[in-house]
Amino acid sequence: MTMQPFTQVTGPAVPLMRANIDTDVIIRIERLTALPKDQLGPYALEALRFRADGSEAPDCVLNQPAFRGAPILLAADNFGCGSSREGAVWALMGIGVRCVIAPSFGDIFFSNCLQNGVLPIRLPLPQVEALAAQCADGAAMTVDLQACTLTAPDGRRTAFEIDPLRREALLHGLDDIGLTLKDDALIRRWQQQDRLRRPWAWPA
């Protein structure tokens, strides 16, 4: 299956430097049961973005004009912890996020990002905090998956690591199924050869 490829993204990075933001904060369960995936964006992080009466919280960084639609999110430790809901990634995508940079992630959230075309990057907390300070006024940074580097507003580059297979999948816009189907001809060739070697394993 295909998804939007990730090669390079440039834009503001939202400095949402809070630890332990869980998937229920990212998207409430009742939103997932009532709405399709492409309509979750308005409800992403609503506990932080909105007051009880539905009005915007003026002190929330996500509501600042410079960060509306920002493609990069900077966070503190353990981002995306909690229950295993793929909708958390869909909701972030709905507000424009293509890359999340944090010291650590919930394991399932990290995997769900990679399956949906969002790049999760692990960096030590001091580095994330330094990026957050530079991006606090809405200055743009660049995430380059081809080169595996981040370029901060001051021009300084930081290398990041990603599993090579996951990198290939993101660059080509492929989830696990799509990545497997890239080798469809090879798989079919093996099947044909195995039918000759072990006909008993391939009942008509």
Overall radius of gyration: 20 Å
Pattern of helices and strands: EHHHEHEHEHEEEHHH
CATH class: Alpha Beta
State the end-to-end distance.
29 Å
The helix fraction, in percent, is 25-40%
**Low-pLDDT stretches:** none
CATH topology: Aconitase, domain 4
Q: What is the level-2 CATH architecture name?
A: Alpha-Beta Barrel
Taking the sheet with the most strands, its summary is:
7 strands, mixed
* CATH homologous superfamily identity: Aconitase, domain 4
Strand content: 15-25%
Number of helices: 9
Q: Quaternary status of these chains?
A: single chain
Form type: globular
Tell me the structural class: alpha/beta
- The tally of structural domains comes to 1
Please tally the β strands and state the result.
7
The mean pLDDT is: 92
Features:
Aconitase, domain 4; globular; 7 strands; single chain; 204 residues; alpha/beta
How would you describe this protein?
- By secondary structure, this protein is α/β, with parallel strands linked by helices.
- The protein has one domain (8-173): Aconitase, domain 4 (Alpha-Beta Barrel), CATH 3.20.19.10.
- It is 35% helix and 16% strand.
- The chain has 9 helices and 7 strands, in the order βαααβαβαβαβββααα.
- It has helices at 23-26, 29-34, 46-49, 87-94, 107-115, 125-135, 164-172, 176-181, 184-197, and strands at 8-16, 72-75, 99-102, 119-122, 140-144, 149-151, 157-159.
- The protein has a 7-stranded mixed beta sheet with strand order 4-3-2-1-5-6-7.
- β2 (72-75), α4 (87-94) and β3 (99-102) form a beta-alpha-beta unit.
- The longest helix is centred in the C-terminal third of the chain and has 14 residues, at 184-197.
- The protein is globular.
- The chain starts with 7 loop residues before the first strand and ends in a 7-residue tail after the last helix.
